[in-house]
Specification:
The protein is an alpha/beta fold and about 280 residues long. The protein contains six helices and 13 strands. The strands form four sheets. A seven-stranded mixed sheet has the order 8-7-6-9-11-12-13. It has a two-stranded antiparallel ribbon with strand order 1-10.
Length: about 280
């Protein structure tokens, strides 16, 4: 296949016209909320999402006391929204998401919303985290995995509940340092190997990887990164600019890959280099 470049503009499937919900116009039909956005950051004066039904249990005094119950409620919601892999759901239940966001946003930690973590980046919505991990772990648990765009460390922490060796790269130094501190709160933190560097270069010294997750959207993926996927391995990434889609790429040979276009998504941009 060579270098994978998404140049063709795919027609928007009919179901993506969406419906109106508390976030405005949804990208998904059938009355669902916006489950697959990774980049929704509210600006001053914009509508602030209301707390969901779990939120009355929240306050700063009892957050830690009730976080396990709130995580259980989050898991039940993910089940209703189509996440069926019990291994993934159990992994998400083990990780306290409120410890990966600012204290001022902790009361929203178990809602299905992307939350700002600084540096114009977000922590992904629980649904998209579960969806991408389920795709990577479908039919088998990889013995190691590479994550491009570690952010605050939450997805790496969830992965560590399933995968023996988790390698994660973050290009923004401030987020890298934040993630280093955050992952200490997670069970199996010793499984996580966090690196500060250019994610588009991957980690050739640790390759090949049976699975790679990319947590930001670009128009293409460099061949250097695709080559780090083992034959038979899977890479899950959002691709596109104005219209983005989640894509599953499977390596079928030394120089061949198959791709499958999945649902529309919205992620922050994929960038090269590092940001001190």
């Amino acid at each position: 296949m060579g270098e994978f470049v998404m140049k063709k503009k795919y027609p928007r499937p009919q179901f993506t016209q969406g419906t109106v919900n508390r976030f405005g116009q949804s990208r998904i039909g059938d009355g669902l909320q916006v489950l697959n956005s990774n980049a929704r950051i509210l600006q001053p004066g914009e509508f602030t999402p209301q707390r969901e039904t779990m939120s009355p249990y929240f306050n700063q005094d009892n957050l830690g006391l009730n976080s396990e119950r709130l995580r259980s409620m989050m898991i039940e919601r993910l089940r209703r929204e189509g996440i069926k892999d019990e291994r993934v759901l159990n992994a998400m239940k083990q990780v306290p998401r409120h410890l990966f966001v600012d204290e001022g946003l902790a009361s929203h930690a178990y809602e299905n919303a992307a939350l700002p973590i600084g540096f114009q980046q977000t922590i992904s919505q629980p649904w998209i985290v579960a969806r991408m991990i389920a795709l990577a772990c479908q039919e088998r648990i990889p013995h190691k995995i590479l994550e491009i765009g570690a952010g605050c460390g939450y997805q790496a922490a969830v992965l560590a509940q399933l995968v023996p060796q988790v390698y994660a790269i973050e290009r923004i130094q401030g987020l890298y340092e934040m993630a280093l501190g955050n992952i200490q709160h997670a069970p199996h933190a010793e499984r996580i190997h966090l690196h500060y560097g250019d994610g588009l270069k991957g980690l050739p010294e640790q390759a090949p990887f049976p699975a790679i997750l990319v947590a930001a959207a670009g128009m293409d993926l460099p061949k250097e990164l695709l080559k780090q996927l083992s034959i038979g391995g899977r890479l899950i990434a959002p691709l596109g600019q104005d219209e983005q889609y989640l894509v599953l790429i499977e390596r079928t040979g030394t120089d061949s890959w198959n791709r499958k276009l999945l649902e529309p998504v919205r992620f922050v941009p994929l960038r090269a280099g590092i940001q001190p």
